[in-house]
């Protein structure tokens, strides 16, 4: 799987969560907790560097979006991120 | 609404991170947003403000725990920036050098010696090699991150290498300045208080020298913020959120 070698378990979970649509950090974390069920071995603060890394790798893109009167950094899958997750 | 715990956490985090200012404030803003969301959720679930804040912070992880991963992104951004400006500087000055020297009247009255020609040729090729290496570094920190695991390992080396090449560049410039007849004297004689064109010469020198300092400062920052201690591999502890039992 060229191009996906450096995706670890958390990266894949994040991509899976984003497959259903664009989300901002805190909601991604909630979705990850629901997916993990019992226990998630990732503090919330660990999520944001993962998102930046995925963006650097070209799997997601982000933008500050105004939602409910607040600006939130919102992430969505790129075409590459979609393919990386399918594999 | 008091945000004191969150505020001091973000302040502490800001103190322990360093790198390109915009990226850093962006990361901190996002962290604060996330904590605010978490506090809101805990408050909605019936917890008192103070308790909601400390629970949100517990979920987020201590600064010591999460800062290294943040610092890696900052180190990479700094390394990318250093490599990018290094490429621009080397390429631009390589092409501009011949042009600007000719205008000072260098070699107007005699032919260069063989040793001088060898040195300038050697330096020309060296510069080309540096540009190629820097382009490779740029690739490593850009698209290449897909194929390089833990690219931040190279951030520190990028800073040191850049400083070394800038040092060599300064030495070579000094050598060429001294070895080229009429170059130094041509520059000095064109600088006079009565001559308005001397302003341009001084401006030209500043334009020539300042970018070197800019890249050097970027490289020093690159070295300083990419220490093993800062990028260290902190294990992320397992935790259970009280909201998702």
UniProtKB/TrEMBL annotation, chain A:
Pfam families registered for this protein in UniProt: PadR (PF03551)
The highest taxon in the source lineage is Bacteria
Q: Domain Transcription regulator PadR N-terminal, which positions?
A: 14-84
Organism encoding this protein: Sphaerisporangium rufum
UniProt protein name: Transcription regulator PadR N-terminal domain-containing protein
Automatic annotation (TrEMBL), chain B:
Top-level taxonomic group: Bacteria
InterPro entries to which the protein is assigned, alphabetical: Perm_prefix_1
This protein's record includes keyword Transmembrane helix: yes
Q: Which UniProt keywords apply?
A: Membrane, Transmembrane, Transmembrane helix
Q: Which residues cross the membrane?
A: 125-148, 160-179, 199-220
Q: Which NCBIfam families match?
A: perm_prefix_1
Q: What is this protein identified as?
A: Uncharacterized protein
Species in which this protein is naturally found:
Sphaerisporangium rufum
